[in-house]
Amino acid sequence: MLLLALALATALPEAVVQTNAGRIAGEATPDGRHLFRGIPFAQPPVGPLRWKPPVPMKPWTDIRDATRSGPGCMQIDYRWNHDNAANQSEDCLYLEVVSPNMRPAKPLPVMVWIHGGGNRAGGAVGTIHSDLGKHVVLVSIQYRLGALGFLSHPALTAESPHRSSGNYGLLDQQAALRWVQANIAAFGGDPDNVTLFGESAGAQDIGLQYLSPLARGLFAKGIEESGTAGFGMPARSLAENEAIGEALVTIAGASAHADAATLREIPAEALVQAAEKTPLPEVGDNSYIWVQSVTDGWILPEKPAAILARTGGAPLPLIIGSNARELDAFHDQAQLQNAIDKTFGGNAAAGRAFYDKLRPDARRGSVLLQAATDLAFACPARVVATAHSKMRYPTWQYEFDYALPGQEVSHSYEIRFAMGDPASFPPGAPPLQSYWINFARTGDPNGPGLPHWAPYGKARAYISFQDGKSEMKANLRGDICRLRNAP
Fold first, then answer.
1. Active-site residue identified among 199, 411, 434, 470
2. pLDDT of amino acid 287
3. Which of 25, 30, 173, 439 is the most exposed, having the fewest neighbouring CB atoms within 10 Å of its CB?
4. Is the pLDDT of residue 8 over 80?
5. Counting beta carbons within 10 angstroms of the beta carbon of residue 393, is it exposed (0 to 12), middle (13 to 18) or buried (19 or more)?
């Protein structure tokens, strides 16, 4: 690797960058972009650093090869994430960067992608090849997943100076953003103009960073695609997450009351597998084990709903939205009714009556799919947009409802239109990438040649991205969402 990096440094001196930990050698492309892969932003979180806040990377002296991606974080292979699962390691705190111009006349806007995957799968690899990297300095980051990133346990809480455990993945994201603040200028980027954007659990994590006091000053604005701080679910307390942690480590082969040193001896693979078998009495569906937010008392000092209601979140511009069809979460009517009873509070009867009368829709799908989209995505987005806008923070909401011929809108479908080459889509495809780039540049998605996107405001305005048109509407799913108050 060192010989490769030295060869690159000789042939392409502009592809060598000095970071705060040492020099790295990336790759220059014929179109003028520069790509850097496998950049460590913290020490490997292994051994005594497992379940610890990320520690800054130790400096190195040689030129480090940055032409190869680092491994993904530990995860189960769910097929959609096969490439990440095939190359995984507990040593996974790496990021990737692409710059369209290393020496611009004016520093370029920076966009930092936080990948989705239920906080239990996915990775950073490949994002820097997207079309966005031709317009902004694009960064894609990794963070500890699953039990290695979000497990709480009394033994870990006891050793923490903050009397807290869990949410290590959120701390990793903050460490990556500190790396961006310290280093992105060397790639042509503006550290004062950093936009976080992500989808699903990545969007949830961005929502949580808007609420975490530890993230202040690390970014300037954000885009939440199909995800909010809680997905409409009540947050767990630290004690509740510790109880889940005790059950998980027991399944992994340790005592529920093991000390921290013993917990760190459990093989990482055993922890990942044990999470698949750990019961979730409140939520039921095990796939939500790491996306029910945790009020740990430090990273999240209060419940997300309470912070949001009191402060509106960080006073930064925000784009938030959902797709017309998201995920099937309910298998039958009984499961839906149970969810309504648990989450609608005093409005449960009205919620049940709404869905009893609802019918399948050609655009939005079955009643169960509509309900899942409402309860976990559209309605929580409305709560966030309302609270954020109420504080007079710039807020824009969208609904994505466009599909390519022969396809249907689904969860994550909008990513291709934000990341892909607009010239590859048919005429009339939503100009999502143009809005995203404008927002990254100025804090406002509007720009020349685009349909006007009005702020959310008191009218609860949102833009609907449909086939052949992008038009303003108001009060998305208002009849049911007015009954919900969970972000």
1. 411
2. 84
3. 30
4. no
5. buried
